Amino acid sequence: QVQLVESGGGLVQAGGSLRLSCAASESILRFNDMGWFRQTPGKQRELVALISSNNITDYTDSVKGRFTISRDNAKNTASLHLNSLKPEDTAVYYCYANVASSFSVRDYWGQGTQVTVSS
Fold first, then answer.
1. Strands (DSSP E) along 14-112, which ranges?
2. What is the per-residue burial (b if ≥16 Cβ within 10 Å, else e) of 7-37?
3. Strand 67-72 vs strand 57-59: parallel, antiparallel, or unpaired?
4. CA-closest candidate to residue 12, choices 100, 98, 107, 89
5. 55 in Cβ contact with 6 (< 8 Å)
6. Angle CA(9)–CA(6)–CA(84) in degrees, nearest 5?
7. pLDDT score recorded for residue 90
8. Rounded to a whole number, what is the largest CA-CA distance in the chain?
């Protein structure tokens, strides 16, 4: 059972920066995509950024040029750098991993970390 643990959320003023980290409980070498989603009350969870096993990245339009996703296979972590934050970036951010095993491919989620951007 893969566990993902996020850290790094918090309260920041508009225009500020944060770095979110996601630590996996095992080697991420067999992980396919890793990514970050976010969710606000009453809304569906939305994709923020994805990174593939060969480091191809994809971002939702609203964060392009401001957020950067990365993964470190040696440390079994994925990170999201959030720059030029806006109040509309306020949400719970969830780490995501798509993991292949011998018999299946499964999605895993972290418990979430709150990001609050004040105006």
1. 18-24, 31-39, 46-51, 57-59, 67-72, 77-82, 91-100, 105-109
2. ebbeebeeeeebebbbbbeeebeebebbbbb
3. unpaired
4. 89
5. no
6. 35
7. 98
8. 48
Rg (CA), the chain: 14
Amino acid at 89: D
Give me 104's structure tokens.
């299946």
Place of tokens 């995501």: 96
**Given this model, what pLDDT does residue 103 score?**
86
Q: Measuring CA to CA, which residue among 74, 81, 66 is closest to residue 21?
A: 81
23 residue type, one letter: A
Q: Which residue reads 């976010």 in tokens?
A: 38
User: Which residues of the chain register pLDDT less than 50?
Assistant: none
Q: Which residue has the tokens 């992980």?
A: 31
